[in-house]
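Page 37, top half.
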Amino acid sequence: MTNEEYMQIALDLARQAAQKDEVPIAALIVNPTSGEIIASAANESAHGSDATAHAEIMAIRRACAKLDTTRLWDLDMYVTLEPCTMCAAAISFARIRNLYFGATDEKGGAIISGVKFYEAPTCHHRPNISSGICADECGQLLKDFFKQKR
């Protein structure tokens, strides 16, 4: 599958989250060798009463549980929005190999926006980063969701 195809799967999950009144962000963890989606998740913060239940965190938790490990060496993550600082740290701790994301988040992002977490000298693991995958579609989904909320 292509990066765009994986991101479309993440977008479908994000749309499902929006239908449940969750912020429409979703993440996949993929084995790039086999193409298998190891884990997937959308935001669960609102209905899970858990401020840490971001899509990236939930996908990491599920992948670690499935593989019975704390490190996700050689796996890739696809996420519809630039991760926040909490999620960037979790991605680093999990040792995700490649991070692919859609829209940038100038307010809350921590990869190419904001604190630029992976540029900090105290960051022990830096994934390879590719951004802008289906960015317009990812960004529009969020804009439409919040416009409907106002």
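Page 37, bottom half:
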Amino acid sequence: MNAPAFASTLPAAALAKAATIRLMIFDVDGVLTDGGLFYGEDGEAFKRFNALDGHGIKMMQQYGTAAAIITARQSPYVLRRARDLGIAHVFQGIHDKRQAFEQLLQQVQLTPQDCGYLGDDIIDLPVLTRVGFKACVANGHREVKSRSDYVTQASGGHGAVREICDLVLAAQGNYEAALAPYLA
């Protein structure tokens, strides 16, 4: 199948690395959300998720690349969003993301090279520096950007996740098939 036109604008090295992953891991605050925290009267933080990002995750999973979440904060909203998207592996309240990553690898029986990671801040570096495909959102920290194979055009919470899902689908030759049901 032919690669989608947008794939020609992507770095060949990033596409090659994304082509081999079987699991894409996402941070939450600043990646699946814009990083803003809205506190209610009871002190609970609310989160705003992007519907385009969610549909991208669903399509990516449908075509064989699983998704997981590793986040430092704990929130019932993250669990709800993960359930809505069919994300089975969710690690919350994790300040040592390396430990959660090792646990995840054991659960899914994959190697670090089989995984991709999309992060935004230095807390993500212990995982990002170990995976096969490293990505950062456009508004991420410079240290994360400098160690990434790909930096999104979109900011966290504003389509960056969808951009990565589309990239993975294209790299693995599944983008056109994922799009086909919507063009029939």
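Margin note: Strands lie at 23-26, 38-39, 45-46, 66-70, 89-91, 115-119, 133-136, 150-151.
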